[in-house]
């Protein structure tokens, strides 16, 4: 895992990261989230992944991630997820 960009955004109370991950196949979001949290010594609940992009035939994946300082700022800034309706 190689860090391309590490920016501290004090206004939004988060770190903005661009990381290059080398894997043989497309890694899932949960695996990438654990790897980012482990590398940057952060709580896994405060890591938000925006993109995991790879090029065809390449083992490199670009990961865009945010690591928030606290739960309150994450809930305030990140968009709310819609819940599924029952019976659908």
Q: What is the count of structural domains?
A: 1
Number of strands: 4
Question: How big is the Rg?
Answer: 14 Å
Major sheet size, sense and barrel closure: 4 strands, antiparallel
CATH architecture: 2-Layer Sandwich
Strand order of the largest sheet: 1-2-4-3
State which percent range the strand residues make up.
35-45%
Straight-line distance between termini:
40 Å
Q: What class do helices, strands and sheet pairing give? A: alpha+beta
Low-confidence stretches: none
| Number of alpha- plus pi-helical segments | 2
User: Helix fraction?
Assistant: 10-25%
Order of helix and strand elements from N to C terminus: EEHEEH
What's the shape? globular
What is the overall pLDDT average? 88
Entry keywords:
alpha+beta, 2 helices, Alpha-Beta Plaits, 88 residues, four-stranded antiparallel beta sheet, globular, 39% strand
């Amino acid at each position: 895992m190689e860090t391309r960009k590490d920016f501290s955004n004090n206004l939004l109370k988060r770190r903005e990261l661009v990381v290059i991950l080398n894997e043989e196949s497309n890694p899932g979001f949960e695996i990438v989230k654990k790897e980012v949290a482990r590398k940057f010594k952060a709580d896994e609940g405060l890591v938000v992944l925006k993109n995991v992009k790879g090029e065809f035939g390449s083992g490199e994946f670009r990961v865009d991630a945010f690591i928030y300082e606290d739960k309150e700022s994450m809930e305030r800034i990140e968009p709310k997820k819609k819940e599924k309706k029952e019976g659908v």
